[in-house]
Write a structure and sequence with these properties.
Layout: E1 8-11, E2 21-24, H1 35-44, E3 53-56, H2 63-70, E4 75-80, H3 83-96, E5 102-106, H4 109-113, E6 120-125, H5 134-143, E7 147-158, E8 171-178, E9 181-187
Parallel strand pairs: 3-4, 3-6, 4-5, 6-7
Antiparallel strand pairs: 1-2, 7-9, 8-9
Length: 193
């Protein structure tokens, strides 16, 4: 099945695929993380992404996960519920040559988090605005130990919503806003040696 033509695209900011444009479907619910915000995020993560196992929980356009793969992540798991979007993600991974390191799951975030699995080094949480999904996601990530000890979680939401309550022991490392977007980098609990 050919990839549908799309007027929407994002540019990969850095890494092996720097400058490549990635298409995504024309759906009103898709709101890719802006280039400037992605650039700041990956500056924050610069030495953490290489060889990391990442989760892009509300993948949408795939901009965050594809950026991670471009910068040397060992694996990115993309979770997205819309079939047309998952089709685009698989097509983009194939075009970029990243299908061996990028794995797309056709299901919702809550359902994915209810299935036990191997923990991640970095988790990207950028749910659709207006759903207040971050508190539940953070609770599930912590309770089911989806994050490796000392792992990092990127949170993106409406600037006006502020930072959600974090699980016990988690700490904010970085926090900024750009326009209507608030974005934060937090670290999970480190285990005792």
């Amino acid at each position: 099945m050919p990839t549908p033509v799309s007027r929407n695209s994002v540019r990969i900011v850095g890494g092996a695929w720097r400058g490549r444009r990635v298409a995504f479907p024309d759906l009103p619910s898709l709101r890719p993380t802006p280039d400037r915000v992605r650039e700041t995020l990956f500056n924050w993560l610069q030495f953490k992404v290489q060889s990391a196992r990442c989760l892009d929980l509300y993948a949408g356009s795939g901009a965050l996960g594809l950026e991670a793969l471009s910068r040397g992540a060992a694996e990115v798991v993309f979770v997205e519920t819309a079939p047309v979007v998952t089709h685009f993600l698989r097509a983009q991974l194939k075009l970029l040559g990243g299908e061996s390191r990028g794995h797309v799951h056709d299901l919702g975030a809550a359902r994915f988090l209810r299935t036990p699995g191997e923990p991640f080094d970095i988790v990207f949480l950028d749910p659709p605005f207006g759903q207040n999904a971050l508190p539940d996601c953070l609770e599930q990530l912590a309770a089911a130990q989806w994050l490796k000890n000392g792992g990092l979680v990127y949170l993106e939401n409406e600037r006006t919503a502020g930072l959600p309550t974090l699980p016990a022991g988690w700490q904010v490392l970085k926090s900024k806003s750009a326009g209507e977007v608030g974005y934060h980098l937090v670290q999970g609990v480190l285990s005792d040696p």
